[in-house]
Structure formats: C-alpha cells, structure tokens
Amino acid sequence: MKHEILNIKGVCFGEVLWDNLPTGRKLGGAPLNVAYHLNKLGIHTDMLTRVGDDTDGEDIIALCEELAIPLTLFQKDSKYQTSTVEVHIDENKDVRYEIVFPVAWDNIALGEKEIEAVSNADFFVFGSLSTRNNISYQTLQTLIKAANYKVLDVNLRAPHYTKERIFELLYYADLVKMNEEELGFVATWLGLPDMDTDAIKAEAVMTTFGVNELIVTYGAKGAIYHSWLGKFSYHFPALRVEVKDTIGSGDSFLAAFLSQRCRQDKQATPEEMLEFATTLSAFVTQSTGACPSYDASTINRFVWLNSLDNIKY
C-alpha cells in the first residue's frame, strides 16, 4: 500500500454514533467507517450526518477532526440526541447491536450545500439503516437523484428496515454490497427457493433491480464481485487472521474496493480491487473497533507478516 492523494471525491450519508463495546466506546456507524477509511486511503470523502447538541456529539466532532474526517457536512440537532449503540460480542466473535431510535441522524436535513456536494462527488455511499425515519429517507431520495455513482451498502439491522425500502434503494444503486445472509433475505423476498445457489440469487438481484455491480461478502470465505459491465463473477479468498472483532470489517472492505474501483489514473483489475479490499478488511478484523489507526507502512507490514504466516514448510 502506497500513500497517495487521489483525484477522487466522495460523500457518505447516514449514521454516526458511539459503539459501546465491552472494552469501552468506539466511534462507529457504517457510512462513517467507510468515510474514515477512504480519507485514510487518500480520497477526500465528506460525511453527511447529524449529531445531537450534546457532549456525545461534541466528542464525535472532536474525534472526527482528529481523524481527518471532513466536518463540512456535519449537522447539529437541538432536539434529538447523538446516537449510541450497545454492542454485544458472543463467543464466536459475532456481533449483535442495540440501536436507539430516534436519534439525530434520523433527521438529516436537505439544503443546497448537501445537493451540491453530492452532485460534485465521484461516488455517493449510502446504507439502508438511514432509511428508517422519513426525514432522513426523504433527504436521501433527493440526494440519490443528484449522485453520479450510487453505492448501496445493505445493512439489515432488525427491526430498522422494510422490504419495500430495501427494494427501492436497490433500484437506485449502481454498486451494491451485501453479505451472504443479506443476499439470502433479498432472494427470499424475491420468491427464490432456499436451495438456489448464491450465483442464481445474485443474478436474480442484478436482473430484477438493474444492478450492474454486486459484491457479496462471506467473512472468512472471502468475497465475490459480480459485474455485468465486465460480464464476470470473481471470487477472492479472505486472509487468515486472528479475529478480535468483526466490527467495521465490511465497511473497510467497501472503502478499499472503491479506492481502486473509482481511480481515474488507471483501471484496476478485479483481482487488484478485491485483493486490496480483503487485505484492509483482514487488518481491521484483527484490530479492535471499526476505525483502527494505520498508515501505508502499517498495512505493508501486515501483508508481509501475513504472507510469512501462510508459508507452508
């Protein structure tokens, strides 16, 4: 990994919050995590969100400034509090979330500044969780129409979604990322038999909603990138690491993938895009929290150590 400043701009939309972990609180929210990693990777990415006019909100703003996440599109809410989430991690390292409703990011406002930022960006990342309240949902609907390249991160957190709204977002999207379980949910909603292969399910999703690119992540089994633009499905295995927690691993995967997919100076191959995405995701998985500190040398050392671990004598 080289430290580069790329001539690409992005906007991420949605939740920012404190994840209350057994080890203490950590900055979180899927779109915020994506924005963090994109900025770390040299891509200027604004985070469009809303925090409460409270101590938790001030702490988020201060930490985002420290982490070099642009604050231009942060909004403050005098009525609703900053979001917090209780995170429970079981013996298998799987994560369960208790997400408070309503909170500040459920009420993201729309203005000319927000529309201009999205229309001038190379890509616009949004998740399904931000549609649970009508105010943020209506803002998102307008911004999607102004976006150039629409990236949907399916993030099913019961009970904060409906089939109808997930379907609407899928119709809008150019690129969709979901995990294996989420692919199963969408396939069931489409009436597909459980016995169908994931390849059949992926094709059905792409055909039904006109999605050109679909990434399905499989945790320790890697990820598959389906592309109708290139007419292929490409599987890339995950790196073997000691898992500390899986919080934000999918978000870092998406950020790393976009950093290669949206490059204007060269056309990355599917292997290059997925290799970089799985590498950063593995690094985050063996770290604590969604936004660990790192730079180019940290990732290079991680890759080197991982290659040594996988040498067979």
Automatic annotation (TrEMBL):
It comes from the Bacteria. Keywords: Kinase, Transferase. The keyword Chloroplast does not apply. GO terms for molecular function: kinase activity. Coiled coil: none annotated. SUPFAM superfamilies: Ribokinase-like. CDD domains: bac_FRK (cd01167). Residues 25-294 form the Carbohydrate kinase PfkB domain. Belongs to the carbohydrate kinase PfkB family. PANTHER family: CARBOHYDRATE KINASE PFKB DOMAIN-CONTAINING PROTEIN, HEXOKINASE FAMILY MEMBER. This is Carbohydrate kinase.
